[in-house]
Amino acid sequence: MNELTIEHYLTELGKKEGTPGGGSAAAYIGSMSAALIRMVADIQKDKKKYTEHADDIKQVLDQAQSARSFFEQLAKDDAVAFEPVLMAYKLPKETPGEKEIRQEAVEKAIRGAAQPPLTMLDKSHELIGLLEQLTRMKMSGTIINDLMVAALFIETVLETAVLNVTINTKLLSDEAERVVIEDKAFERVASGKKKVQELRETINYFLEKNEWPDSL
């Protein structure tokens, strides 16, 4: 998938002939979350009240920028990840040999299609870590609302990624392999959602009271 403007991407997303789908869209939501995290850090980096956190803020800036680029690439990877599966299913299956070759090709393609959402789950945890850093620094102002939006976006990415893992793994004939992949995905989404929920409660406390909880 070539570089697209947002307008063109959404047009492709809404077409039956288009290659991007929900997984690709979720990856772009992940990139938006990373951009919001970077924006908050960028706004605060030169303020005197955060001088003691200057190095940490710089690290957040760099990692958020890297995460944004990573998610953008994941969006492209996910958009084309299922194409090999479709091609494998079109292979001939008239003879026992052809059936075996076809099945091997299908299994290999399915593993490949499950990889972008699995990677998305892992990368989402990196975004959670960046959000945790900013809350521990007790950022302030109306931009904390943007941290809440970033957290909501991360939760969406987690939910979508696990859906896209299981929609692929249910096609695997090897049940043991399917269970291993799905267990990893379920663990990552459960631990990620738990951390996001804790962050949302902390950020919401600030939004309601204009101060961070004493426990932070």
From TrEMBL:
Coiled coil: none annotated. It comes from Alkalibacterium olivapovliticus. It comes from the Bacteria. Residues 5-182 form the Cyclodeaminase/cyclohydrolase domain. The lineage of its organism: Bacteria, Bacillati, Bacillota, Bacilli, Lactobacillales. InterPro entries: Cyclodeamin/CycHdrlase, Formintransfe-cycloase-like_sf. GO terms for molecular function: catalytic activity. It holds the Pfam family FTCD_C. This is Formiminotetrahydrofolate cyclodeaminase.
